[in-house]
Design brief:
Layout lengths: L5 E6 L2 E6 L10 H16 L5 E6 L3 E3 L12 H11 L4 E5 L2 E3 L1 H8 L2 E4 L4 E3 L13 H4 L5 H10 L2 E3 H6 L5 E2 L5 H14 L2 H34 L2 H11 L9
Parallel strand pairs: 2-3, 3-5, 4-6, 5-7, 6-8, 7-10
Antiparallel strand pairs: 1-2, 8-9
Amino acid sequence: MTTALVGRNRVRGVETLSLDSPATRNALSRALVSELADALGACEKDDDVRAVVLTHTGNTFSAGADLKDPPPPHAVPALLRRILELRKPVVARVAGHVRAGGLGVLGACDLAFASGTATFAFTEVRIGVAPAVISLPLLPRVDPRALSRYCLTGETFGAAEAARIGLVTQSAGDGDLDEVLAPVLDGLRRAAPTALARTKELLTAKVLEAFVEDAGEMTRLSASLFAGPDAREGLTAFLERRDPPWVL
């Protein structure tokens, strides 16, 4: 019997989807991406679901692409677009670390809340690739200067900085993450479903334009970089826990 990689729970119309592969740090594997897309599709069709909370088990929201079982090239942009096009708000609840492709999932969510101990990093350049596909939901939403810094350097930064630059809606700081989320979910429960869907359409229109115009190009760029010599060396060095040869 196959173990589910996405947990599901519903409380008063809010469906919580939990990435549940802590052994792989919730890396975006072929199976996890497929299962999450299916769960989101089920939420779309269910009139009793008012909003979706996307969270995780373990200490990592998502470590990015699964290097041992990567999804097909089209699967991640399709997942990000599904989150954006879902006619119900998707709220990220981050109580751990987010890396690389996991930041694309975070960026596609309508709202995002992080614990004060959460950390974030665009690690692509350090393994010889680029944040191509995940840039689609992030470029319209995150402070350009800050995004340039963190994408070019791969530095790790905390939840307060993530909130300052617009990567997340709010950091819980030293407070309780679920207490911060409570009034937000209450507000969504009080909203008329059709009005909620139409409002989300207005707010995501510019982000979706980027997918229509650039998703194909970004998918091809990502695939070409992952197939290149820098990525092969960078991924090998990462798995062997050593610096790649370009480190000065």
